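EI: anyone free to look at a 110-residue chain?
SC: sure, send it
EI:
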Amino acid sequence: IWNKKNIRTCLGCHIKQEKTNLFRIANIKINQDNEKENRENNNAKKDKTKINNKVILDETQNMGGRGAYICSIQCLEKALEKNFLQKRLRINLSEEQKENLKQAISKAER
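SC: here you go
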Protein backbone atom coordinates (compact mmCIF):
# COMPACT_ATOMS: atom_id res chain seq x y z
CA ILE A 1 0.00 0.00 0.00
CA TRP A 2 1.35 3.40 -1.00
CA ASN A 3 1.56 6.44 1.19
CA LYS A 4 -0.32 9.11 -0.79
CA LYS A 5 2.18 11.78 0.26
CA ASN A 6 4.98 9.97 -1.57
CA ILE A 7 3.20 9.30 -4.88
CA ARG A 8 4.23 11.38 -7.89
CA THR A 9 3.41 11.21 -11.62
CA CYS A 10 6.10 10.91 -14.29
CA LEU A 11 5.80 13.73 -16.83
CA GLY A 12 6.76 11.48 -19.72
CA CYS A 13 4.65 8.34 -19.28
CA HIS A 14 2.12 9.71 -16.71
CA ILE A 15 2.48 6.61 -14.53
CA LYS A 16 2.13 7.16 -10.78
CA GLN A 17 4.99 5.83 -8.68
CA GLU A 18 6.60 6.38 -5.32
CA LYS A 19 8.82 9.44 -5.52
CA THR A 20 11.87 7.43 -4.43
CA ASN A 21 11.65 5.59 -7.79
CA LEU A 22 11.64 8.84 -9.79
CA PHE A 23 14.15 11.56 -10.62
CA ARG A 24 13.21 15.07 -9.49
CA ILE A 25 14.13 18.01 -11.68
CA ALA A 26 14.03 21.35 -9.86
CA ASN A 27 13.85 24.94 -11.06
CA ILE A 28 15.82 26.92 -8.48
CA LYS A 29 15.81 30.72 -8.45
CA ILE A 30 19.21 32.17 -7.69
CA ASN A 31 19.65 35.83 -6.79
CA GLN A 32 23.19 36.66 -7.90
CA ASP A 33 23.47 40.33 -6.94
CA ASN A 34 23.20 41.92 -3.54
CA GLU A 35 20.93 39.40 -1.83
CA LYS A 36 22.05 40.80 1.51
CA GLU A 37 21.32 44.35 0.36
CA ASN A 38 17.77 43.38 -0.64
CA ARG A 39 17.12 41.88 2.80
CA GLU A 40 18.35 45.02 4.56
CA ASN A 41 16.14 47.30 2.50
CA ASN A 42 12.68 45.75 2.90
CA ASN A 43 10.96 48.51 0.92
CA ALA A 44 13.14 48.03 -2.17
CA LYS A 45 11.52 46.23 -5.05
CA LYS A 46 13.38 43.18 -6.25
CA ASP A 47 14.97 43.63 -9.65
CA LYS A 48 13.90 40.62 -11.71
CA THR A 49 16.95 40.87 -13.94
CA LYS A 50 19.13 39.91 -10.98
CA ILE A 51 17.35 36.59 -10.46
CA ASN A 52 18.52 33.64 -12.56
CA ASN A 53 16.89 30.24 -12.82
CA LYS A 54 18.93 27.09 -12.56
CA VAL A 55 17.39 23.79 -13.63
CA ILE A 56 19.08 20.81 -11.99
CA LEU A 57 18.59 17.17 -11.12
CA ASP A 58 17.58 17.19 -7.45
CA GLU A 59 19.21 14.03 -6.14
CA THR A 60 18.11 14.68 -2.55
CA GLN A 61 14.50 15.40 -3.60
CA ASN A 62 14.41 18.05 -0.88
CA MET A 63 15.44 21.24 -2.68
CA GLY A 64 13.07 24.13 -2.93
CA GLY A 65 11.64 25.53 -6.14
CA ARG A 66 9.25 24.11 -8.68
CA GLY A 67 9.79 20.45 -9.36
CA ALA A 68 8.92 17.77 -11.87
CA TYR A 69 9.35 14.01 -11.75
CA ILE A 70 10.74 11.74 -14.49
CA CYS A 71 11.22 7.96 -14.38
CA SER A 72 13.75 7.48 -17.20
CA ILE A 73 15.77 9.17 -19.93
CA GLN A 74 13.11 8.18 -22.48
CA CYS A 75 10.44 9.94 -20.43
CA LEU A 76 12.66 13.02 -20.12
CA GLU A 77 13.05 13.17 -23.89
CA LYS A 78 9.29 12.79 -24.36
CA ALA A 79 8.57 15.50 -21.75
CA LEU A 80 11.04 17.86 -23.45
CA GLU A 81 9.67 17.12 -26.93
CA LYS A 82 6.09 17.87 -25.88
CA ASN A 83 7.10 20.84 -23.66
CA PHE A 84 5.63 19.17 -20.55
CA LEU A 85 8.77 19.88 -18.53
CA GLN A 86 8.97 23.54 -19.56
CA LYS A 87 5.31 24.07 -18.65
CA ARG A 88 5.64 22.34 -15.27
CA LEU A 89 8.77 24.29 -14.32
CA ARG A 90 7.45 27.53 -15.85
CA ILE A 91 10.67 28.19 -17.74
CA ASN A 92 12.03 28.13 -21.29
CA LEU A 93 14.92 25.67 -21.36
CA SER A 94 17.91 26.30 -23.57
CA GLU A 95 19.42 23.48 -25.62
CA GLU A 96 22.38 23.48 -23.24
CA GLN A 97 20.10 23.02 -20.21
CA LYS A 98 18.27 20.18 -21.96
CA GLU A 99 21.55 18.40 -22.73
CA ASN A 100 22.78 18.88 -19.15
CA LEU A 101 19.58 17.28 -17.82
CA LYS A 102 19.87 14.36 -20.22
CA GLN A 103 23.48 13.75 -19.16
CA ALA A 104 22.63 14.00 -15.45
CA ILE A 105 19.75 11.52 -15.72
CA SER A 106 21.69 9.07 -17.88
CA LYS A 107 24.53 9.12 -15.27
CA ALA A 108 22.04 8.65 -12.41
CA GLU A 109 20.33 5.71 -14.15
CA ARG A 110 23.57 3.67 -14.17
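EI: Residues 95-109 form the longest helix (15 residues).
SC: 👍
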